[in-house]
Amino acid sequence: MKAVGLYRYLPIEDEESLIDVEVEIPVPTGRDILVEVKAISVNPVDTKVRSPKDKVEPELKILGWDVAGVVASVGPDCTLFQPGDSVFYAGSITRQGGNSSFHLVDERIVGRMPSRLSFAEAAALPLTSITAWEGLYDRLGVSDDPAVNRDKRILIVGAAGGVGSIATQLAKLTGLTVIGTASRSASEQWVKDHGADFVINHYEPFVPQLKALNLDHVDYIFCLNATDDHWRKMADALAPQGVICSIVETKAPLDLNLLKSKSGTYAWEYMFTRAMYETDDMIEQHHLLNQLADLVDAGRVKTTLTEVLSPIHAANLRKAHAMIESGSTIGKIVLENFS
Fold first, then answer.
1. Would the pTM count as exceeding 0.85?
2. Closest to 129 in 3D by CA, of 89, 95, 99
3. Where in this chain does the record put each Enoyl reductase (ER) domain (predicted)?
4. What architecture (CATH level 2) is domain 2-125+273-336?
5. CA 70 to CA 123: how far, in whole Å?
6. Distance between CA atoms of 82 and 111, rounded to whole angstroms?
């Protein structure tokens, strides 16, 4: 089968950073399903894993953690899917990624693909949607009851990105007042188009901007960008007994004392945790992706696809990585069709 992978970790400008290869089609065992890959998406995690380092892989390493495709075959212990089913998922960071024409994945982290979407539109959703869903409901503890959230507010830092675009939509469904951050006119409009009530600039202090909107403080903060840079601004903006969740690792220890007087809570969200540790509730990602598919098919959540590259090969994946590394992308970049 066709695949795109690496042996060495190189700058994306180097043609050897991602290469086209042919490998054997794997055979599913246990609860694995074999998926014929129709479309893939690129996320910042792809570029972070691929980033230059002094390491050489003895075997080809395949990246890619957003897939939409069709089940080709299933392992003997599978109960959730059968050949012919259209699916979407993010996969596991501890296994080979989905940048290949066929891919093995545990069925417990796979969802039914929304029927109203194309494969490209669906491939834009899994990783960012799982991150947004877990961040909102599991880490921040947001209720899904709009009556509970009538007077509550959430600040989404980096709302124009892939995760932010989904988090904004989900937060609006819960009845929260949503404040997104953006720094350019195009990204500000994108955030508004996805449902944010207000948009502020993440390069400026948050509290004065909130006060200018007569909002004062926020109950929840979902940080999707530069945790170190925004930490003090977030601590200042958080309401007493509020919660902050971040998905971005820090370069230095955070001063949690800034949250002490407010009895504030800090949490991490890493959407690979369940698959990485094969937690007892690993199947929750299957359930949430199916719930997401229902929301999409009902027209309540929309895909965040902004650009499609075709076909799927190393040159186009290098192009997509370079676009992500520029730091100016809005929404999601998808590749479809193996050449």
1. yes
2. 89
3. 17-335
4. Alpha-Beta Complex (3.90)
5. 12
6. 12
The structural domains of the chain, with segments of one domain joined by +, span 2-125+273-336, 131-268
Tokens in use for 323? Answer: 């676009």
Which pLDDT does position 330 carry in this prediction?
87
Residue pair 248/238 in contact by the 8 Å Cβ criterion: no
d(CA 333, CA 172): 24
Which of 98-112, 223-237, 318-332 is least confident?
318-332
Say how many CA atoms lie within 13 Å of 65 toward its Cβ: 24
Average pLDDT over residues 121-130: 98
Alpha carbon 150 to its chain's center: 27
Outline where DSSP puts E strands in the chain.
Answer: 2-9, 19-22, 32-42, 53-62, 67-74, 86-89, 102-106, 110-112, 153-157, 177-181, 198-200, 218-223, 238-246, 265-268, 305-309, 332-336
In this prediction, residues 62-88 reach a mean pLDDT of: 98
Pairwise CA distance, residues 73 & 71, whole Å: 6
pLDDT in tens, 247-287: 999 999 999 999 999 999 999 999 999 999 999 999 999 99
pLDDT in tens, 303-324: 999 999 999 999 999 999 999 9
Peptide bond into 311 cis (omega under 30): yes
Count of all residues that appear for the chain in the document: 339
DSSP 25: P
Q: Residue 157: name the closest of 212, 237, 215 by CA.
A: 237
Does 339 have pLDDT greater than 80? no
pLDDT exceeds cutoff 90 at 239: yes
Tell me the average pLDDT across 156-183. Answer: 96
CATH fit for domain 131-268, picks 3.30.830.10, 1.10.10.10, 3.40.50.2300, 3.40.50.720: 3.40.50.720
Q: What DSSP line would sit under 118-149, residue for residue?
A: -HHHHHTSHHHHHHHHIIIIIIS---S-TTTT
